[in-house]
Amino acid sequence: xxxxxxxxxxxxxxxxxxxxxxxxxxxxxxxxxxxxxxxxxxxxxxxxxxxxxxxxxxxxxxxxxxxxxxxxxxxxxxxxxxxxxxxxxxxxxxxxxxxxxxxxxxxxxxxxxxxxxxxxxxxxxxxxxxxxxxxxxxxxxxxxxxxxxxxxxxxxxxxxxxxxxxxxxxxxxxxxxxxxxxxxxxxxxxxxxxxxxxxxxxxxxxx
Length: 207
Hints:
Largest sheet: 3 strands, mixed
Oligomer: single chain
Strand content: under 5%
Number of strands: 3
């Protein structure tokens, strides 16, 4: 059985496990709608044009962070990931299933929020679904294969990476890695948490 087939089967398993957890489904799909209803009741149309994308972005970040950070850390500490090496499932197929599940939830979340804002508050459809992709953080800055895999999955939105520029990007400086002809620009940007902390301390200590 090929690695792609195993990844597909594990993706289907992740989907079944997700829907068997009502709490996860509630926080992924219902809670953003509650936020949208609350903010929509006290905001005008102009403010909603900012609030709705913010809720969509917050939902996607919460879902992917929970799936790729909290869950993977928990599975590692519980010894599940170590036991996975004793099964016929390759690590890449396992990770692809987890990533696919998180990406599916993110797409569904954005679709629900866009549709709800359209029909509940009469907001227009998004004109440009994607204008810019930024890779940052430890993996985003330093892993060219992860960036390439992410871009390949977003190819239908017009994302494309220049393979040579992607390989050269090491996270030591801002670098555009967009491929010629791609509709969406892509950058690798160092996170620089130290600089942001210094700015916050300076603002706090300034008279």
